[in-house]
Design brief:
The complex is a heterodimer of chains A (about 180) and B (about 450).
Chain A: E1 7-11, H1 21-31, E2 42-46, E3 51-55, H2 64-68, E4 74-76, E5 82-84, H3 94-98, E6 105-106, E7 113-114, H4 127-131, E8 138-142, H5 143-150, H6 154-157, H7 159-162
Antiparallel strand pairs in A: 1-8, 2-3, 4-5, 6-7
Chain B: E1 2-6, H1 10-22, E2 29-33, H2 46-50, H3 64-69, E3 72-75, E4 80-84, E5 89-92, E6 97-99, E7 102-105, E8 109-111, E9 124-125, H4 130-138, E10 143-147, H5 151-162, E11 166-170, H6 183-195, E12 199-201, E13 206-212, E14 214-220, E15 224-226, E16 229-232, E17 236-238, H7 241-245, E18 254-255, E19 267-269, E20 274-277, E21 284-285, H8 290-304, E22 317-322, E23 325-331, H9 334-337, E24 346-353, E25 356-363, E26 366-373, H10 380-389, H11 393-405, H12 412-420, H13 432-441
Parallel strand pairs in B: 1-2, 1-7, 2-3, 7-19, 9-16, 10-11, 10-16, 11-12, 18-20
Antiparallel strand pairs in B: 4-5, 5-6, 8-17, 13-14, 14-15, 20-21, 22-23, 23-26, 24-25, 25-26
The chains are: A alpha+beta (about 180), B alpha/beta (about 450).
The structure holds flavin-adenine dinucleotide and iron/sulfur cluster (2 copies).
The site of one iron/sulfur cluster has 15 residues of chain A, from helix 3.
Chain lengths: ~180, ~450
């Protein structure tokens, strides 16, 4: 995907306070209602350590979800976003299982999956970004700048790191040892 | 450069598309030979078309127009029957001859038909190829017996149930989806199946299919089941005969090296017909799955384009999904583990919570496989990541108190893993939760 003006969402988990505004914005944008279940971005909550992390589709370059969907319902849009074609999806969840982030979510109305479409049909851009203006935990940046913006977080976790190891390669993505 | 691809399936088309997209500067002449009459369709989606969940047009991945636009010469309904690797020519059943510079074997496998009497009766159907699925979709019956409970059998059973059939599944081995799940998980999935009104008989052998012209019953070693429809879903055998005409070495499937090249110059192979190696364990394997077919095909295309691309190996990953039941499996099951170690080397970590069921198989602290049912399955991708990187879970558990108390949320996947293992919850700061997991580990 080498689109000139391709932009991506970059998340800075350190800034998230767990207010769920992004979820509400997404849910209102796409469904006209206010409920996390209808949001494509979801906050992972780790309340024991007061940690909140917004998780959404990263539109991986070599996206595993595209390869495992039995219905070919996961499709890459011009914008680079990877979304579900509802006419084809059967709600089997293979895309969720294969995703390094478990990013696609189930649309409670029809049991099919959905994921971030970058609000491409709206000139103001992704609503979650607007909703997080105060904290700036979610930013919408040009793809070329993303690697820098992502710094130590998401870039490291992107799907290339997550795929099965090539022989004789040592360092893969994050490690659990401290 | 002339590239001839045998097989118009997932793998063959991926090779063609990749060559077209990435070989723009090269003048590549691409021909696909197809035994069937259709543009590319996805076998994985056939059961959902049969069950009426999607329209027939959804199964197609390409239109005939697409081939034209991309200058891919598609030869339909003309099976390749022999290869002359010295003259570099392929001959088809209609006697046409296609010279090649590079040949790609991407002809998949064919349905394994068990050697039992009655398999040729009317009403004995399958779901492996579109023409058969069409027949099954048109078929008007009321009582079906599905022989074989692999993923395809399970999906076919669901499809027929949705169409109003009374459905019975018969499995020769001890539990359903025997290569995908360990006993505990499979028994649960079996009970779910029964809950949806599908009868399941395991450890049962089909002796014959009976009937006069068309199917009337299926006879097993335990009973006779009256029916008007039989679906054969007993697995897929790789096609070797064509490869063998060229002297291509085969074992269970067509043998390839890490560049997906066979032992014969300029003959590549990919998809369901090849035998490759496991990405994690290195053992020889045949995981006939779509994602492997796609990745192998890309390696073939890159090597044809002159890159020295190396295949990282195949990996098992499958979902089991019917009605409201959702499950996933990856890596080794207990049975599969026997191929790489003795069973006392395998540690089993099992958790059952309100969010579902999780089972991880560990060897020396490292994940070698897992199965999950329900919401817990949603994080299979994270667990597979741990498996591929060889994360040491023993070490992780030991380090948990430190990880849990880091100020920074990085990496959140580590915290999530803690949650999945039951290490992290409001009441279980390191201590309680930890003991719980250790207890299970022992
Ligand atoms: C019902 C069903 C459900 C499945 N579900 C899943 C799933 O959920 N997930 C998953 O990962 N995988 C699934 N699979 C497996 C997946 O479809 C295969 O792994 C994949 O299609 C392999 O691609 P392939 O190109 O190697 O073979 P195929 O897609 O089978 O294509 C091979 C093609 O070659 C043709 N051919 C054969 N011999 C010749 C010849 N001599 N000359 C010319 N053409 C020839 C065949 O007619 C066929 O069209 C499923 C398979 C089936 C049948
Ligand atoms: S694998 Fe996950 S993150 Fe990557 S494109 Fe698919 S849904 Fe998005
Ligand atoms: S849930 Fe839908 S989009 Fe996801 S893999 Fe299944 S069919 Fe494809």
């Amino acid at each position: 995907m080498a689109l000139k003006e391709e932009k991506v969402l970059v998340i800075d988990p350190d800034k998230c306070t767990g207010c769920h505004s992004c979820e509400m914005a997404c849910s209102i944008k796409h469904f006209g209602k206010c409920h996390s279940y209808f949001s494509r971005i979801r906050i992972q909550e780790f309340r024991d350590v007061n940690t909140f992390i917004p998780v959404t589709c990263q539109a991986c370059e070599d996206a595993p979800c595209l390869k495992v969907c039995p219905m070919n319902a996961r499709v890459r849009l011009e914008s680079g976003a990877v979304v579900t074609d509802e006419d084809k999806c059967i709600g089997c969840r293979a895309c969720i299982y294969s995703c390094p982030f478990g990013a696609p979510v189930i649309n409670p109305d029809n049991g099919k999956t959905m994921s971030c479409d970058l609000c491409m049909d709206d000139p103001i851009g992704p609503w979650c970004v607007k909703a997080c203006t105060m904290q700036q935990a979610i930013k919408f940046v040009r793809a070329q700048d993303a690697a820098r913006a992502k710094g130590r977080d998401m870039a490291k976790l992107l799907a290339e790191d997550y795929m099965p190891p090539k022989q004789e390669e040592g360092d893969f993505g994050f490690s659990f040892s401290v | 450069m002339k590239v001839v691809i045998v097989g118009n399936g997932i793998a063959g088309n991926e090779v063609a598309s990749y060559l077209r997209e990435h070989g723009k500067d090269k003048d590549i002449d691409i021909t696909i030979l197809s035994a069937e009459k259709f543009p590319e369709y996805d076998p994985c989606s056939l059961p959902y078309f049969v069950g009426g969940e999607v329209d027939r047009n959804v199964v197609f991945r390409k239109s005939l127009d697409h081939y034209k636009k991309n200058r891919i010469n598609l030869v339909l309904d003309n099976k390749a029957v022999s290869i002359d690797s010295n003259a570099k020519k392929v001959t088809t059943e209609k006697g046409d001859v296609f010279p090649y510079d590079s040949l790609v074997l991407a002809h998949g496998g064919s349905l394994f038909i068990p050697p039992i009497p009655g398999v040729n009766l009317d009403g004995v159907l399958s779901c492996k190829v579109l023409a058969e699925a069409d027949k099954l979709a048109r078929h008007k019956g009321t009582k079906a017996v599905v022989i074989g409970s692999g993923a395809i059998g399970i999906e076919a059973a669901e499809a027929l149930k949705l169409k109003g059939y009374q459905v019975t599944i018969i499995e020769l081995l001890d539990w359903i989806m025997p290569t995908l799940f360990c006993e505990g998980a499979a028994r649960f999935l079996e009970d779910e199946m029964r809950g949806y009104g599908i009868e399941v008989y395991t450890s049962e052998k089909v002796l014959s299919i009976q009937g006069d012209g068309s199917v009337e019953s299926v006879k097993t070693d335990k009973r006779v089941i009256p029916c008007d429809t039989v679906v054969i879903a007993t697995g897929v055998v790789p096609g070797r005969p064509l490869a063998e005409t060229a002297g291509v070495a085969c074992d269970r499937g067509v043998l390839v090296n890490d560049q997906m090249l066979t032992n014969v110059d300029d003959i590549y192979a990919c998809g369901d017909c090849v035998q490759t190696y496991d990405a994690c364990t290195g053992e020889g394997c045949m995981y006939q799955l779509k994602h492997n077919a796609i990745e192998q095909a890309r390696i073939v295309a890159r090597n044809i384009l002159g890159e020295k691309a190396q295949y990282r190996g195949a990996y098992p990953f499958a979902r089991a999904h019917y009605f409201d039941t959702h499950a996933v499996t990856f890596g080794k099951t207990m049975k599969g583990a026997e191929r790489i170690c003795t069973l006392d080397q395998v540690e089993v970590l099992e958790r059952s919570t309100i969010n579902g069921y999780l089972r991880l198989l560990l060897k020396e602290g490292k994940i070698i496989g897992g199965q999950a049912i329900g919401k817990m399955a949603d994080y299979a991708g994270l667990l597979m990541g741990c498996m591929w990187r060889g994360e040491d879970l023993h070490e992780f558990i030991e380090n948990w108190p430190k990880i849990a108390e880091l100020d920074s949320p990085y990496p959140w996947q580590a915290r999530k893993l803690g949650q999945l293992l039951g290490l992290s919850s409001l009441d279980a700061k390191p201590g309680k939760g930890l003991e719980r997991v250790y207890a299970i580990l022992k």
